[in-house]
Amino acid sequence: MHRRAAALAVPLTAIALAISSCANIPEEWRTPAFMRMGEEQLDSRIPTVTGPVGEEPEITFPDTEPPEEELSGIVSKGSGEDELVRADDLLIANVIQYQWTGPGEGEPVEGQSSYETGAPDLVRMEQMPEQIGDVLVNQPIGSRAVYVFPPMTEEERQQAEMAGQPAQEGASVLVIDLMERYNKGAVVPGEQTEEGGGDLPKVTQEGHSEPVIEIPDTDPPEELEVVPLIEGGGAEVEEGQQVIVQYTGVRWEADDNGGHESFDSTWSRGGDPFDTTIGAGAVIQGWDEGMVGQKVGSRLMLVVPGDMAYGESEEEAGGAPAGTLVFVVDILGAYDNPPPPEPEEIEGEEGEEGADEEADAPEDGGEDEE
């Protein structure tokens, strides 16, 4: 549940930069990396990438000029055949980009490695270009994919420079390690050991269907109530992390028909998991305070008073639901966010003061509410 102001977006800059130079590649240039010869063999022009999936890889560039075709393939296949990537998944992936500048020569692109930042990328498969997503579909979690995008043409370089983007030298090489997947309709494992009830709402759910929230005929509590319905076994959610959740929400106050219809729910959007930064003002205060410290794998009932949501009155809420709100939230995962960029050093006394002011300014990385 976003605040009305802005929600922090999860950037996919590593992927966006890598494919920016290949948007106009003719279809006939898109060469498959696998050649059928009794078994799957990788194209020899793809750099050799070694090391365990989930750790920063080692890469060796072929002793040739970068190819003029787009190449891709799976260089390490995961073992979990029951955890295959689907075309509508939300993926957790470690991503690193390299520049292949000449025969046997290449280097990582600065700032384009989740291994460097310690924060994985959240990759929505439905938003990926075909040349990225098609390689990943039906691959097991724990696999490693490698992509080679040809050098930019002179026209593409000029377009990049006009847009204020760096014109990368040589070919782009992208390595994606598949770490986790969340499918549509994903819920936390385990059975509910608590339903609420009494002076608090009662929550029931059948299978993976949208939870049913029954509001009692009493006044709502004045303070935030956090009721674990399923106790998770994962790590505690930390302030500033990216959380992945399923949720539904209703107003405590009944509508004109005496009902409590959901005003917002991931289930109404096909069960597509929602991701946001928690504990940083990207969502309502009741979510920030209610989820930090809870364990991944938990299902929570959050009873949020109006002053920790959108406001007590319709006027205060400004079109959002007013008064006390009740949410059921499945905490599917929690991952670190990359650290904010360091301000550039500026020479001179005035420059140093300016740098200090920039460092103290709040980060603006938001996007409008959906």
Could you please describe the fold and organization of this structure?
The chain has 370 residues and is an alpha+beta fold. It folds into two domains: 7-182, Chitinase A, domain 3 (Roll), CATH 3.10.50; 202-335, Chitinase A, domain 3. Helices cover 14% and strands 32% of the residues. It has seven helices and 22 strands. The protein has helices at residues 13-19, 114-117, 130-136, 154-162, 285-291, 314-317, 349-360; strands spanning 7-8, 34-36, 40-42, 48-50, 58-60, 71-76, 80-84, 90-102, 105-113, 121-124, 140-141, 144-149, 171-182, 202-204, 212-214, 225-230, 242-251, 264-265, 274-277, 299-304, 325-335, 366-367. The strands form seven sheets. Strands 6, 8, 9, 10, 12 and 13 form a six-stranded antiparallel sheet that branches. Strands 16, 17, 18, 19, 20 and 21 form a six-stranded antiparallel sheet that branches. It starts with 6 loop residues before the first strand and ends with a strand. The relative contact order is 0.16.
Instruction: Indicate the low-confidence ranges by residue numbers.
Output: 2-39, 351-370
Largest sheet: 6 strands, antiparallel
CATH class of the largest domain, named Alpha Beta
User: What is the total number of structural domains?
Assistant: 2
Annotation field: number of helices: 7
Q: Which fold name fills CATH's third level, the topology of the largest domain?
A: Chitinase A, domain 3
End-to-end Cα distance, whole Å, is 10 Å
Question: Could you say which structural class the secondary elements and strand pairing correspond to?
Answer: alpha+beta
Describe the global form.
elongated
Overall mean pLDDT: 83
Query: What is the CA-atom radius of gyration, in angstroms?
Result: 24 Å
Our estimate of the beta-strand percent is 25-35%
Q: Say how many strands there are.
A: 22
Order of helices and strands: EHEEEEEEEEHEHEEHEEEEEEEHEHEHE
Q: Give the proportion of residues in helices.
A: 10-25%
- CATH-scheme architecture of the largest domain: Roll
